[in-house]
Amino acid sequence: MKQENCPQNNPKFISIEPSGICALKRMFMNCMDWVPIVVAMGLAWRRRWWRFIIGGINRPLIFVLLFFWNLGGHTVSAEDSYLGFLVPGLVVMAAVSSSYSDLVNWFVLRRTFYRVLDEYMLAPISYSSLLIGHVLGAASKGFVLALLLFLFVRIFVHGFFISLYFLVQLFVICLTFACLAVAVAMVAGSDKDTLMFTNLFISPMTFFCGTFFPVEQLPGLLLHLSWSLPLTAATYNLRSLALTGTGHVDWFLQSLGWLTGFCLMAYFLLKRKVNS
């Protein structure tokens, strides 16, 4: 909406719209100024969609194929097979990797190498819109890739359930790690710091949060540590939804709690970095 349409911004302009309607329109447009960021990220991915698909699902897909061939090469039921346990964990791995990796590299390179993050803030959008746009764009990419993987492996493993609750839980995982990517990018000094954090925390987390084996098999301290990580409850809830069609409210609420915490942390770190 052009600002001069509002009578309080241009006294010479005679508008037939009440000032309250102009204020509501301006408020609505301000709330939606993250949309162009999502569209721009979508257009970039559309031009290189095959690279993102191959890069996002190749590793979990190799895991599935290797276990499938070594377990006999026959289509199995998800209810009573190890592949039924493994596939939801690999879907989580794909969602985390695709939502986190590209976004953290995008912010770190533009903040430390190209030094253009301040120029982004010259645009008439708020910190929250900048955060929402990039988090939604990265999470949507991770969600699509993880869902493609889940649909593909149903060729080898039958009996999985897919529901709206399953999709919501999967998208919450993608949003959580997209927010974490922004937070990490705001404190990393270079791309080497990002790589170190990924190797020390993100990669082990994908293995010790119930992806390949139940965390109940871990020794005492590691068992409690695993349940204190942001991915364990989400992985267990997604697996329960995929295998039985029913989820656990307490695990889902834990996922929302981690999402809220990382979102607030990313917002304040982004605001502090730009202001400094």
From TrEMBL:
The chain crosses the membrane at residues 52-71, 83-109, 130-156, 162-188, 195-215, 251-270. It is found in: Cell membrane; Membrane. Residues 51-273 form the ABC transmembrane type-2 domain. It holds the Pfam family ABC2_membrane. Keywords: Cell membrane, Membrane, Transmembrane, Transmembrane helix, Transport. It comes from Thermoanaerobacter kivui. GO terms for cellular component: ATP-binding cassette (ABC) transporter complex. InterPro entries: ABC-2_transport_permease (IPR052522), ABC2_TM (IPR013525), ABC2_TM_bact-type (IPR047817), ABC_2_transport (IPR000412). Its main location: membrane. It is a multi-pass membrane protein. This is Transport permease protein. Belongs to the ABC-2 integral membrane protein family. GO terms for molecular function: ABC-type transporter activity. PANTHER family: INNER MEMBRANE TRANSPORT PERMEASE YADH (PTHR43332:SF2), INNER MEMBRANE TRANSPORT PERMEASE YADH-RELATED (PTHR43332). The lineage of its organism: Bacteria, Bacillati, Bacillota, Clostridia, Thermoanaerobacterales.
